[in-house]
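Tutorial sheet, problem 5. The three components below are modelled jointly, 829 residues in total.
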Amino acid sequence: MDRQKKIHEELLNWDDTVRKRKITLSNPVFIKGLALAPLAVAATTFKNSFILSLMVVMLLTPTRVITSLVTRRMSVPLKTFFYPMVSALVFGGAYYVMYKIMGVTAFSLGVYLPILVVDPLIVKNFEKTRKESFTYSIINGLRNTAGFVLACMLLGCLREFLAFGTVAGRQIMSVALLPMADKPFGGYLIIGLISAVWSLCVNLYKERLIKEDAMYE
Amino acid sequence: MNSQTYKNNYRQHYDYMMLALAPLIICASFIYSARVLLVCGAAFITARIVDVAMAVIRKQEIDADDKSSAVAALTFAMMLPVSVPLYIVVVTVALTVMVGKHAFGGKDSYPFSLAALAMCVAAVNWPNEVFKAVAPLTSVNFWTGAAQSALTGSSQIKLGGLPYISTFDLLLGNHPAAMGSSFVLVIVAIGIFLLATKQITWHIPVSFLATCTAFSLAFPRIYGVSRLYSLKYEILCSAIVFYAVFMMNEPATTPKNPRAKLVFGVLTGLLTMLFRYYGSYEIGGCFALLLVNATEGYWDRLFEKKTEDSTKEDKPAKEQVKAEKTASKHQSEPNGKKLYRKEAVAEKTVKAVKQPKQPKEMDATTTLDIISRAEDEIDQVDFSTQTIDMEQALREFEERYKGGK
Amino acid sequence: MNSTLMNHIFTFFSYSVLAIGAENVIFARGLGLSTGLRMINDPRKDTLYFCTALTFFQLVNSILAYFAVPLVYSSPLAYYARFITPVIIVACCAVSYIVVVLLLGIVLKRSTFKRIVYSLTGASINSAIVGTIILSLGRGFNFVETVGFGLGSSVGYMLAMLLVSEGERKINHDMVPQHFRGLPITLIYISVLALAIFGLTGNTMAL
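Model answer (structure tokens):
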């Protein structure tokens, strides 16, 4: 009965259901198309993806929380000024911490870590006039982070396997299936294909819910 | 031209292209061994299997008449050396047909030349195997493709050298090159045949070749010889003539308007030579063609618009019709009752009062409302097919703004 | 004097052409792609206007950052310069945005101002701008090279976005399989164009 009610509510408020499930149904990368630059160009191996994910973990939620407090009463132009500044300051600290943990490996992604500061994944919300509560900013920040980390690690492992036959440095196959997977155009192609499969899975899930709902009725 | 005629012409084009590729395959088999047939067969069968598989997955009818994938696969095979491993052919053709054709909607809906796309994918993934040429009339292992490799004429030019190939050999394709793209005389004869049967028009091949020729004459790459000598090697050592006949006349990816075709040919020629001179790969034409395919629709629209504007005899007719409509409005109502001019003006004024035209200040208020609502809905401007129907959003937007942006 | 000027002009144009073609921000580096795709799919934003605004901000911010960032390297915070550089660059972008907004607020009518400001946010705070500045600083470009590279990047961005929006006309139809519509087919389209540009360079750009 509870499950039936839950399914029915999910279907009735499908848009809200999608908006809440940022890891699966409304993944920030494969459904919303955010953070495409670092993922298509830099997330070519497990190691690179790990570095990107770690930076986003340290950057996204703290930025969102701080800006929800600081920019609460600001208009859009002022938000446009403060939001990226907060993001850049948090990034500076996070970058330093990462350097202390990893050494010079932290710099191996070149320009693709610093540009996260102004990537829509981090700063998209400065265009909103709707005020965000402290709790909501934490929850949403963590959801977006989890969605991004899932997408990033999946992409990194897949591209490394296709381009080099290895995963996390361990040889799986001696032949590279698709050497172009580590190039930017290979990244766009693979993200596009995964995005299509992801969209299919979301629709299949919705159809399954509809069937279950119909069965209960 | 109605849709049935177009479909028949479309199918006929690919039938003729299959026929046109046959002499090249025969020449290549003679010069490079029977392995040519194995490579072409692998490409052809892969293309057909992928077509059928996609039709099954999409729950559509299997269209046995759609030969676009097969023609693209064979054209691609003709640009490869005979020693190419079969897995490269199979993987590239499968990926190209799946992603380059079916992902974009299938028959006649794809924006990029399939053969060019396949060649670019293969060149980028496996450059060593794809650019390894075999000298003609040497032994080639039928199954593995193992053979003595040789330097192509275009590679020698790229390295700054001068190829030692006689003009006769250049025209007959008797030099290390890809399987089918070096038989210049045969390709020219095929081109004339396709022109005579009206499967292709002269606009693109002529403008493309003319641009390549002019560029080579103006900026020769081979030093110490005359410009004509340099031009001979530049054009005949490469696959430029092959591109002009087989790759640049695909109905789905080239413009329809004749002037647009000329611009298309010139642009492709220019980019081809730039890619050949400054790019990293010898197959500059394939990369250039992909870029210019992206602009195909723009040229058609541009020249169709210019054609409409330049037909002045339509203008008076339009104005006359408009004037007649306005006159008839004032003259009588649908029920036949005649209106005096004053009444007509009064009615217009009444109508104006009921539905006032929005002055600029009113537009601004509406704009502000829309923008502030849009700011709240900013999350919905994304790619999620679950949360927003873009077509409906655009219709609503246009209804609010009468006359668009 | 004349040869120096000619040299500078030649350097300016060659770096611009390099940034438009071989090092195109979208096709070779993917910078600003997410913002660009959101802009194309937003019926309230005009591509040409957005790209013109981006070009303006790119030039202004490149010049500001060219003078501002070396100050950090010559200050007591030089050890932390690498971590502070993104802050300085973003501060330049944010300051230039605020100054432009204030000027426009004084000059323009309220309605026009509101409409323009909405489009300016994405054009001013953009990873294409920040990424290009970081690249030119990292490679030690001089002033002429920085401005040329910046201008070329933004022109390359505009050309790329025009190509992609032209492609959207071709790929926005019912024949495209349902699950490929929208983001997936747009990314596949961009991947083919990026492949074509790759033919010029032949290798991946250094990160």
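Marking note: Helices of chain A lie at 2-12, 14-20, 36-42, 46-70, 76-102, 120-123, 134-164, 184-216. Full credit if you identified this.
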